[in-house]
């Protein structure tokens, strides 16, 4: 599996991934989420230009370097916030979401950030329970930062609070304290300090917005 920065030609494919990844929500009676539009191309392009959109691909597969999943991230308070992470259901159960999140963790650690954060549905099996398995914990109300409160308020305005949602956080080990040999050098893309506008499209194994 290869994690790379998104290319402009990838962006319509990311919208296709988003649409496909939203369909499983329909089986849970969450058609509102399944029917939500994917991120518009101009929003995806803004993330790409800011160096905050990465894709996972398998260059050795029959699809070549075609994206199988993607992630968008924003710096929010002391953390790198996972705005959206979506995987094509046809490529499910290959650890793609985990690889994308691991890439973000390396980038955030090398940049001196303290954690990864996200917002997600509590009771959707591939949302909060999945993130708990890979090291995230649910934040209590008093632990929410101003940035996370603002994201939750926007999600509520979008109607996502009709189902229980939580904020989650995974604290990161600093580069200085990581055991030798546990991670290679990381090239940090340009990442503006101001977070981008949250997106609220549905996806499999998603955070920000779903």
Walkthrough of the structure:
This protein has 210 residues and is an alpha+beta fold. 28% of the residues lie in helices and 21% in strands. The protein contains six helices and seven strands; from the N terminus they run βαααβββαβαβαβ. It has a seven-stranded mixed beta sheet, sandwiched between helices. A hairpin with a 2-residue loop joins β3 (67-76) and β4 (79-87). The chain is globular. The model is unreliable at 175-190 and 192-210 (pLDDT under 50).
Q: What key attributes describe this structure?
A:
disordered C terminus; 21% strand; alpha+beta; seven-stranded mixed beta sheet; 210 residues
Spatial separation of the terminal alpha carbons: 25 Å
What would you call the shape? globular
Major sheet: arrangement of strands: 1-2-3-4-5-7-6
Biggest sheet statistics: 7 strands, mixed
The succession of helices and strands, N to C, reads EHHHEEEHEHEHE
Low-confidence stretches: 175-190, 192-210
- How much of the residues is beta strand, in percent? 15-25%
**Number of beta-strand segments:** 7
Structural class: alpha+beta
Number of helices: 6
Helix content: 25-40%
Average of per-residue pLDDT values: 86
Query: Using only CA atoms, what is the Rg?
Result: 16 Å
Topology overview:
Blueprint: E1 2-5, H1 11-22, H2 31-34, H3 41-49, E2 53-57, E3 67-76, E4 79-87, H4 96-110, E5 115-121, H5 128-133, E6 137-138, H6 146-158, E7 165-171
Parallel strand pairs: 4-5
Antiparallel strand pairs: 1-2, 2-3, 3-4, 5-7, 6-7
Question: What's this model, at a glance?
Answer:
The chain has 210 residues and is an alpha+beta fold. It contains 6 helices and 7 strands, in the order βαααβββαβαβαβ. Strands 1-2-3-4-5-7-6 form a 7-stranded mixed β-sheet, sandwiched between helices.
